[in-house]
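Here is one chain, start to finish.
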Amino acid sequence: MGVQLAKSAIDLGIVISDSEKSLAFYRDLLGFEHVADIPMPLGGGGTMHRLMCGDTLVKLVKFDTVPGPAAPGGIVGATGFRYFTMIVSNLAEIMEQCEAAGCKIAVKMREARPGVTIGMVEDPDGNWVEFVQNS
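Its structure:
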């Protein structure tokens, strides 16, 4: 039976510690479209900043009381969700812009396998964001 999707993309929730820094990264630097801010009904209150990345809704959740950080170390730091991936056509430009903006580069741009180049950066809370370009 399985999941019967009603939308061709997932919605991704990311708990953040600082709305201003996270919006500067996802909205201003990466260019996600900011579509709304709504109250967060769970977790004691807060704000959900809703941004679109293609067909994916990225929900940046800033709770009034910020929980502690996730385990550091990127992909190998712990189990669970550790990164997400975007397929892009301008990888070198993205990596240059992220570096110029002072983002921590987790994985420098490199060929992962023939015809596939990757780069990874950290968002303001240390979450890894992967960019993949296929030749």
